[in-house]
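Lab notes, practical 5.
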Amino acid sequence: MGSLFRSEDMCLAQLFLQAGSAYDCISELGEMGLVEFRDLNPNVNSFQRKFVSEIKRCEEMERILGYLLREIKKADIPLPDGDVNPVAPSTKHVMGIMEQLQRLEVELSEVTRNKEKLQKNLLELTEYTHMLRITRNFVQRSTEREPLQLQYEEFPFLEKDTMMDYNSMQRLGAKLGFISGLIQRTKIEAFERMLWRVCKGYTILSYSEVEEYLEDPDTGEPTKSVVFLISYWGEQIGQKVKKICDCYHCHLYPYPNSNEERNDVVEGLGTRIQDLNTVLHRTEDYLRQVLNKASESVYIWVIQVKKMKAIYYILNLCSFDVTNKCLIAEVWCPVNDLPTLRRALEEGSRKSGATVPSFVNRIPSNDTPPTLVRTNKFTSGFQNIVEAYGIGNYREVNPAPYTIITFPFLFAVMFGDLGHGLIMALFAFWMVLYENNRKLKRTRNEIWNTFFEGRYIILMMGLFSIYTGLIYNDCFSKSLNIFGSGWSVRAMFNAGVWKDAVKTNRFLTLDPNVTGVFNGPYPFGIDPIWNLASNRLTFLNSYKMKMSVILGIIHMSFGVILSIFNHLHFRKKYNLYLVFLPELLFLLCLFGYLVFMIFYKWLAFSAQNSRLAPSILINFINMFLMQGDAVQPLYPGQTGLQAFLLVIALLSVPVLLLGKPLYLYWLHNGGGRLGMYRGYELVRRSSEEELSLMRAHNLEEGSSHSDLSTSREHQTEEFEFADEFLHQSIHTIEYCLGCISNTASYLRLWALSLAHAQLSEVLWAMVMRVGLRMGTSLGILFLVPVFGLFAVLTVSILLIMEGLSAFLHALRLHWVEFQNKFYSGSGIKFSPFAFSLLPSSFEQDGLL
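Output from the prediction step:
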């Protein structure tokens, strides 16, 4: 937990991996997730690196696995759960897996291809059967309408007018032909119009819809088809009809010339369909057996191939030493994990059976290390909130441990309701209890995943909302009378307060100045009788507004104080006097004094003389106008103290603006102190241990102490007074103006708290009160749907929408008003090479 307050101490290390054990060593490092690799071949094309062929082999195996997974999904075979976590296969087992996958692909593709051919043949035979059955109906219907003297028995389906046209065409020597087939129902109208326009009426089209759904061979979806029969005159018309059928993707089948031939074809089709169904059923059984066998190992294969591909990708980042026949890698590693890193390399060398072990050597570096903050399942959510603003600089103070308390507390100040907080806490507690449930963890609903990942944040927000709800004495817009009111009802009646309230038909107005009415403060929170008072909002406005200012000043002052730890850690003690002290004085002399006046007014004035108390806001404004005598002072000597504080605040501005640039300029031109300044800059970039390594490295090469100083000078950037002054000017303007705007920004605590309370009260008055006011017999029945509507609106509006609004405002208060006092958030996140970070589900793999 120590690294939670500040990022881990990192170092740059060099790995010397023997060629035979490099694969196993990287595999061990991937299982542990200790180090982040640097690319030592930045100028080398991806296709020209050493292990390109191995990566192509892995991609080929991924292609085969994707094909297997699609076929398994198509067959509705359940995929195994990801309980196992196999290690990456050894290099000698890779070819075995490749051969097994290729053999399985060939077998599966052959069976699938045969199945598709059988299904296509079965579909053609089925369509042919429907065509023969429906065209027979055409023939029978036409025969019933045919005149008795019709002599052309070979064409019994032609009508009388058609026969007259046929007689004329027969005299011209034209020949009558037939084309039959099936077409999709959506195309039949356009198909009919095209026939009429192209063939000029020399065709007769008869069609009827098939009752059953037939499978589309291209898409595999069931579609409605139409059987058609076209009679035409002449070979040229027949060629045009065939071309039109091809354009509309019609399935054409031969048309029998007689009833006997049709019966023989139908009988043969029935036998062939029966045989095809038998063969197809056996083929599907065999295909399912193959897929069931493949599904048992497909999860292991997917993980192994992904790990193997990741290993070869990392090996491509290494440089190859031809002389020593080894791979050299550079990694960022936490200093505390160096012993574990050495053990991982030893284990990888042992597994590969290498005679020469791989080893690690720590090297000095001036590059800024990445930032690593270790978290657990409780702190990870709060750390994600901080890092959503920006990754912290290396070894910078981490706001996350303080955010664990301040974030849910500020949220609860805006959301404070006992009932709503209890519902939120129970929901989060349920997610915490079932956090290991696979169904809850592996859903594809992004909204649910967001709630589930932040379950501990929601739990803390709910618990703090219960606390603030007790402070506000607010539970679903109603107050709880736990300790008894501090107001005497009998005294209020004797004083005439109740009589006036009854006469005017309004709520009572609470006045603590009436003798005997107010017996003392409520033990915890706000007195419940304020819920009946007409001046309730006036009282709560004053209370919550002052509370928001107090919390805001305390929160911002805490952020300024945290900057001390950054100045001390980076060896910049001059920032304590030239940056931290002016910032703190400016904030406390102005706005800290405002908090002092609020507390002083609360303590110095009672209910009896509260009307004589001067306005804090007017006194605060007159402090800047230097008009202390214009209004009644709050306490003796107020004018002199306010003038002194104002002068201190004004003097801190030029110190904050010019102090640091002038001091650094003096150090730069100060001769002997130049090394001190540059030494500070060097220590800022590297830890003490890395500095000692640099000294040892230079001494081994025979360099003297003066050479070391010279190297430091080259490593330190040249000081520019203009750049430093510009940077400090921006910081000063932003801080001074920010103190005003940030203090006003904390008034959102007051505004959202009142808005939430009013929304809750309006919802109760408009929904629940309607059901509670009705008679006994009808009211009980009516109360059930009313309560259901009240519950739905409470969850959707007051819990989800209002909760999200309070969450976003609390997030802004931390990002802008709190973290900008000490947290820059411009670092680089530590991204270790870890197999656990690879996607584990099949949908995320991109193979489906």
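Observations recorded by the TA: Residues 259-315 form the longest helix (57 residues). The first strand starts at residue 10 and ends at 18.
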